[in-house]
Amino acid sequence: MVAGSGETVPDPQQKTRTRKLLEGWHWYRPGISREEKILVFKLDLSILLFGCLSTFTKTLDNQALTNAYVTGMREDIGLTGNDLNYLNAVYYSSYLSFMIPASFMLTRLPISKILPTMEILWGVCTFGCAWVHNLTQLYVCRFFLGATETVAFTGVIYVIGSWYKRDELGTRMALFQISAPLGSMISGYLQTAAYTHLNGRHGIEGWRWMFIICFCITFPCAIIGYVCFPNQPNNTRPSWLLNHSEVELANKRLEEEGVMKMEKKINWRALTRVLKGWPWYCFVFAWCLYDQNQYWGTTPFSLYLKASDRHYSPSQINDYPTVGKGIAIVLTVIGSYYSDKTGDRFGPTLLGAILVASGSIILVVWNVPEGARFYAFFIDGAETAMSTFLMSWASDVVKHDSEARSIITASMNCIGQVFLAWVPIFTFNVAKAPRFTVGFIFSMVTGIVHVLLACLIQVLDVRRKRKENKRMLLIEARNDNKTDVFDDVDVEGSVSSKEKQ
């Protein structure tokens, strides 16, 4: 800002952002009461413990398929051509087919029981993958894996968004989202260890041991869910973890935020209201781009390493893709800290989109040093980090409307998976490894579009905030006018009484 005298006056909003950024990381909001701090601690213990473990096990098991494919499974059960993509398509098709029945269950049955039950069924299906001997059996296992996962991500995201305040949400969402790349990282290391130390033990191949280990990790996670995972605040009864006063405090916190309580079922009026606004279209489209852009740093990278004329070892094939997941974790932590402190979701989202677009351009050029290609595959981890910022951004935009938040986050996940189910079959054909020309060009286009879409969302969000601020000012002005009128009446009344006396 520039004053009339020509002196530059600092922008007060920018000063506030900088001050908050330099304050340091606060897990709890400054000035929070002891009772509220205990409540938030218990919420972290109950929601994040199970939510993070659930996401960790899902990603661990899903990544295990790719790791197993490049570490002996393809040869052992006779997979050929584009079978790996078809297996993923079966999984996502099942996931999407059960999305509506799953949403029906979440609105009518206790989430605290549904999610752990599905976790157990997921573990059983994962265990089944260890004993397949042909492609048909693996298709069956992948189909049921998709069916049992369909409630997990949306259910946990909704519960997190239902209990925490806005300035608590980003950090918790980041921790939840970190568990996904962490699962992918550990999957690579576990597969390397299983191949090195367990291959052939008791007559079982190393890749089969990976699925057995995943089952052993998944089952205790479900038990934790049964013990401590809550429902929504307005549907939660006092328990051994949350007493009656803490449940009341949780609902009071939401009332202070102006958050609407969600009805038992979402009606057509709510759906129509959401579809009339820009957030649904922009965030669903952004999530579709996210799903496509984060893909080429995972399975295509592993296939590139396996088909490379440099003859990478099984350990290298499993370990190198974990670097991108490490980048995702670091960027998620840094970006979430920044966005929570400043309230800026746009900056981290834009930076991630630009980094990913630069990586896809390198792969389109192709004739570059091997180190440049590795950078391109590694930097795709920045896209994985963007899931945190997009979900938090969407939750911020509709934070006062629980029904809108539920519809938008579920739509983001569902519609994004629709395209992820079939697009890679054509863009990243397994037989084209190591050079996926069509896929790299497609990723470059979607990366650039993602940059432009982030800018559009920011423009619309700024406009929304201005309208919201004007509305709040009008409400305050009306309230002040009413107060003035009542004050005048009181004054006139007192004067009249004095005159009578």
Automatic annotation (TrEMBL):
InterPro entries: MFS, MFS_trans_sf. GO terms for molecular function: transmembrane transporter activity. It holds the Pfam family MFS_1. Keywords: Membrane, Transmembrane, Transmembrane helix, Transport. It is a multi-pass membrane protein. It is found in: Membrane. GO terms for cellular component: membrane. The chain crosses the membrane at residues 89-107, 114-133, 139-161, 207-229, 350-368, 374-394, 406-428, 440-462. PANTHER family: PERMEASE-RELATED, TRANSPORTER SEO1-RELATED. Belongs to the major facilitator superfamily. Allantoate permease family. This is Major facilitator superfamily domain-containing protein. It comes from Lipomyces tetrasporus.
